[in-house]
Design goal:
With 171 residues, the protein is an alpha+beta fold. The chain is built from two helices and nine strands; from the N terminus they run βββαββββαββ. The protein has a single domain, classed as Regulatory factor, effector binding domain (Multidrug-efflux Transporter 1 Regulator Bmrr, Chain A, Alpha-Beta Barrel), CATH 3.20.80.10. A nine-stranded antiparallel β-sheet has the order 1-2-7-9-8-4-5-3-6, covered by helices on one side. The longest helix is centred in the C-terminal third of the chain and has 18 residues.
Length: 171
Amino acid sequence: MVEEPKYAVIKKSGEVEIRRYPPIILAKAEGAEDPFSLLFDYISGKNLQRKKVSMTAPVISEKIAMTAPVISDSTSMSFVLPSSYTLETAPEPLDSRIKIVQLPARTLAVIRFSGRWSQSKFEEKSKELLSFLSKEGFRTKGPLLSMLYNPPYVPWFMRRNEIAVEIEGET
């Protein structure tokens, strides 16, 4: 079982959860043609300390906000580092396209779905999430996030996927 960030569910309504997350340390790849491989090499020991880092979940991709027409391209990919790491103790990347960053404590609205991740499913679930938040009076900030929890060999019907967006204020 891989480690996942801990969070508190503040509110649940149907498929949507409002979650409060503590600060989280990420290894974030930007500007890479294959960010997953770049990050996988980093946690496999391709870092200054040559230290292997345990895989965690989810793998997070930031998405450009939905517009008309719908546009949703990956802008970055991140691996959540195990909770035992801090900014000071995380292995230093050798590749300048990887940055170690700390996300502050924040509140996310999340919608979960199973199956294979696809662009059409991302767009469908993003619309559902944003519609719910609009109806409930929540204001979003930042990009939509795609959070994938399972390796590719997990059967499609057992996969856990989530779309999330940060919301303003405490609920």
